[in-house]
Amino acid sequence: MSEYGVERRRVFGIGGALGMLAAGGLTASTVLARRPAVTGAELRSAVPLPVPYRTPLPVPTVLRPVDTAGGVDRYRVTQRAARVPILPGVDTPMWTYEGAFPGPTIESRRGRPVTVTYRNELPVPTVVHLHGGRTPAESDGYPTDLVLPRGWRDPMDGMRHPAGMAGMADPRAVVTRSTRTHTFPLDQRPTLLWYHDHRMDFTAPAIWRGLAGMHVVRDDAEDALGLPAGPRELPLMITDRAFAADGGLAYPALDPTLRERPGVPERYLAGVLGDVILVNGAPWPVHEVDAARYRLRILNASNARHYELEAVTDDGRRLDLVQVGADQGLLAAPVAQRRLPIAPAERYDVVVDFAAVPVGSRVRLRNRLGTGRTREVLAFRVARKAADRSRIPRVLSRDLPTWHRGDAVRVRDFAFRAGRMDSGHGWLIGGLPFDPARSDVTARLGDVEVWRLIADVHHPVHLHLVGFRVLSRGGRRPLPTDVGLKDTIALRPGESAEIITRFDGYRGRYLFHCHNAEHEDMGMMANLDIV
Ligand SMILES: [Cu+2]
């Protein structure tokens, strides 16, 4: 096959890129490659930390629409500073959606449009992206489509690239003042999405301060499956944070006002990790459950921390985590997992059965990648026997895309690695730092493409607009947890992977980027123009 020859050359091309990495002697990549489990530097809290598994698990409130006329659910969300009780007896000043962390959850039905009017009452520009949403470009939250706060003088402020690249304004940016309304058609597979700030150069500290919330899309077919529901379905947003002596959040921003100079000191180049694990904004919480099946909708909303989750009983048994869904919705069939590696922005939809767990005992969700307290995440205390009419059907969905290599009209290669930007250390895609004004990828609407990705250190790579399937990892079969339709793939140090997708939905300017939030602020994004 003539195609085979092309593939071989591309494989050698990637090998060449890796060879350069090894020889390049870049501080970050070489240091981190030697310590592959490290995805950042950990901040130490300056307050006494709570004892794990005493704080009840909060479940974020579901936001009520202000209007549902004409088949559209309309919401209003205000971004504002608030004092949020996170640690026992302490209020933590945060930047929030509606005064809460996580922000309120939006529940929506497939194909029923949602509009959200965001009001910015924070002291800095903001922009909201719905992660995993199949959203028209003008509502996707491009990093320069800023909502300026009242009184923000220079509309160009906050649109400049890090020092030394000043003046790199974006002629295509659509900037508004005070408010902006996003329209989300939500014509997509039901799944757990999340919304978060995506401001150019300042995404990492903005999410850290609290600008993140969940969004669930449902449909009748999924409802009819009989999976655990109601109080037995739990959205779980996992984040790590660190706290200063006054109970405020610690974060090593070069400019703590987040107005001008982006970035973090070099020590935190690989990412910022906290020493406190929060689930739905509570430190190491505990949740009382029936001895029955529960559906856990797990999101890793941490900036840089990876987890490998397992469910362990008090007597040391590991419970199956029966995966029913991935980033972009239901699998074709359930897959029993023992461990769930979860990188920033990834989601898993799993069912865990507490029926055989003795009443009064616990099941802990633990993190195999943590050390000390960061090994602990969440505990379930089995409170009582209970009836359970839920089920896990053998067939979960029949609408997963079945793209084949032969469908692809193009193969593209992207190296995600450390490098130099004008401002110093950066993280680059294909050797380049993000420039909103540059065209990186132009794809035709409807085209199927194969992308080959290669990483120096851990990089969770995320495509806006489309889901993809993982074809291979390291030249071999994908991991058992790569199953289903994804929108974020966790590349491991030195690893290559192939993904396949169809650029479907809308034309316009989108993004692909690393979802280690510190990496994305330090250059690791690129434009994806769909024409
Ligand atoms: Cu990265």
UniProtKB/TrEMBL annotation:
Gene3D superfamilies in alphabetical order: Cupredoxins - blue copper proteins
Record has Iron as a keyword: no
Limits of the Plastocyanin-like domain: 84-143, 428-528
One Pfam family from the record: Cu-oxidase_3
Source taxon at top rank: Bacteria
Record keyword Oxidoreductase present: yes
Keywords: Capsid protein, Metal-binding, Oxidoreductase, Virion
Alphabetized GO MF terms: copper ion binding; oxidoreductase activity
PANTHER family: BILIRUBIN OXIDASE, CUPREDOXIN SUPERFAMILY PROTEIN
Family: Belongs to the multicopper oxidase family.
Record's protein name: Spore coat protein A
Organism placement in taxonomy: Bacteria, Bacillati, Actinomycetota, Actinomycetes, Micromonosporales
Originating gene: cotA_2
